[in-house]
User: What shape does this take?
Amino acid sequence: MVVLRTRRYARWVVRGLLSELWSNVGPSRRFAGPPVASRGAPGWAVVTGGTGAIGEAVCRGLAARGYDVVVGARDAAKGAAVADAVARDFGVRSRAAVGDVRDAATFAGGDAAPVLLVNNAGVMHYTLMRNGHEDEWEQAVDVNCKGVLNGIGAVLPGMLARGKGHVLSVSSDAGRKAFAGLAVYSGTKFFVEAVSQGLRAETAGTGVKVTTVQPGDTKSNLKSCTTDEEARALYAQPSEDRNLWLDPNDVARTVVWALSQPPHVAVNEILVEPRDAPA
Assistant: This one.
């Protein structure tokens, strides 16, 4: 497990909207210099964790609404594949920004002006505190907490200067209630909720919106992070009952709906859960 040391993520991803990052996107969709929104398009949206199940669904949902999309990815090939598919299927511009939400490196030169930031990158480990998986605790803090801060730090000054923007963080129902086997994960999502509440209060009257979406159990690849087999056996067994889990598209539709409201409407929090599994 890599021990993580980072301060600012999305300055790499967001400010990395430069021509160099087009190396993973087809030449027909390259352009020189900082991106400018397509004519008549709502603008650029940055989605971290854009190649995961929920992230890709969000990218596609926003593209369907006309947004040009930056697909944040750790894997260059996966990022390019999602970006190419989004551009091809929806006729918008899309590019991969390859980096890591934990990485403090920044790209020199050029600035982007995203109108939306979706903090979606995250990790989740089922683990019992007594089993002392401290490397996983640190990873959860670095990705789920610092990654969100890095993204906000990268886009907030520009949004405030323009008098508009929207920061949406994919949190969890574990940010409202702590669950056994997810103590550290729950703590990171409580952190996301607290930061979002504070930021929302600070930015009231500026034109910037702040939203958290809090999904319940969702069929995604997050549970694959778990290495604590005792915790997996106790808390992470899959269910075949369709009413006990969400699809990634269920979460993505919720995200896109929150981001699609009129300028005067702020959707601050959404708790979305399987019908028969309330938190």
About this structure: Confidence is low (pLDDT under 50) at residues 1-39, 106-111. Residues 134-162 form the longest helix (29 residues).
